[in-house]
Amino acid sequence: MRIEAKIKGPWGQGIWPAFWTIGANFPVVGWPACGEIDLMEAKGRSYPVDGSPDQSNIIGSAVHFGTQWPDNRYIVGNFYTSNENTFQNYFHSITLIFQNDKLEFYVDNETNPHLSIDPTLYPLNQYNYPFNREFYLIINV
Q1: How far, in Å, CA of 133 to CA of 17, rounded?
Q2: Which of the chain's ends, N or C, has fewer CB atoms near its CB within 10 Å?
Q3: Cα 57–chain centre separation
Q4: Is the separation of the CB atoms in 120 and 133 below 8 Å?
Q5: How far apart are CA 62 and CA 114, in angstroms?
Q6: Do the Cβ atoms of 9 and 17 come closer than 8 Å?
Q7: Do residues 93 and 65 make contact, with C-beta atoms less than 8 angstroms apart?
């Protein structure tokens, strides 16, 4: 399955726009055992931090898994654009290729995923792989 959206993020400190999913079995098993897939999170980075430059050109993709809170584990991959082509200035396509035992994350139809997940990756290989089931899709700011 392919999930894709064209997204342009808002400007502002503390705004955390996200395009993500949560396992449909969340009410039964809870988080993080249900699994969470973050296709895109911007985390309000459109401001300089501790002398660092503006970070509006960064988004993160991640998967969350584990047993019960606070046993939350995750794997994250960041994607960087040029400073002129930020996620707040232009629309970017965010894509997840969702296959059995494999997740691949792309931005702007790149040929290689910036994050690829399968059940053999550490520390995911220490847990039940929660991503071969139905998920709810969520877009929020």
Answers
A1: 25
A2: N
A3: 15
A4: no
A5: 11
A6: yes
A7: no
Sequence-separated (6 or more) residues with CB below 8 Å from residue 28:
34
Q: Which of 41, 84, 104, 110 is catalytic?
A: 41
**Number of Cβ within a 10 Å radius of residue 138:** 13
Lookup result for tokens 């809170």: 69
| Burial environment of residue 108 by CB neighbours within 10 A (0 to 12, 13 to 18, 19 or more) | middle
Q: Active-site residue among 36, 104, 110, 134?
A: 36
Summarize pLDDT for 87-128 with one digit per residue, the tens: 888 999 999 999 999 999 999 988 999 999 999 999 999 999
**pLDDT for res 84:** 81
- pLDDT, tens digit, 9 for 90 and up, residues 11-27: 777 788 899 999 999 99
Q: How far apart are CA 138 and CA 8, in angstroms?
A: 16
41 is a catalytic site residue: yes
Tokens of 140: 């929020």
Q: Name the CA radius of gyration of the chain, rounded.
A: 15
Residue 84 a catalytic site member: no
Summarised one tens digit per residue, pLDDT across range 62-94 is: 999 999 999 999 999 999 888 788 888 899 999
